[in-house]
Amino acid sequence: MSALIATLWLVNVTLDTGGQLAFKAAAGDPRAGDGMARWRYMASRPWLWLGLLAYALHLLSWIAFLSLVDLSKGMLLASINMVAIMLGGRLLFREKLTPLRVAGIALVSAGVAIVGASG
Questions:
Q1: Which of 13, 62, 84, 109 has its CA 20 to 30 A from that of 54?
Q2: pLDDT digit string (tens) for 75-100?
Q3: Could you write out the DSSP letters of every residue in 62-86?
Q4: Which residues make Cβ contacts (< 8 Å) with residue 21, sequence separation at least 6?
Q5: CA 38/CA 70 separation, integer angstroms
């Protein structure tokens, strides 16, 4: 894997993970209320806008990444995003990592390593 591809992959993982965690921070705020009041509250918080910005930049990095790798390989490498998001959820939101989730993290990580090592 070239340095450019590896960099774009890391940028992609970082932006996707950051966007998901920002959306969770916006949506999970207990002060948000219900219904339209919830949406107005979320729209007034920086987390929602940070998540949208991360997703816009993620889209650009994803397109750049896919311009350099096969779609099948790119999708497999992108599955590490699930691992990063689960770990971020654990660290930031104290979400549970059950034994099955840990096994899933291990399997996804192993698969990404195999795909990444395949050249």
A1: 109
A2: 888 888 999 999 999 999 999 999 99
A3: HHHHHTTS-HHHHHHHHTHHHHHHH
A4: 85, 88, 89, 92
A5: 41
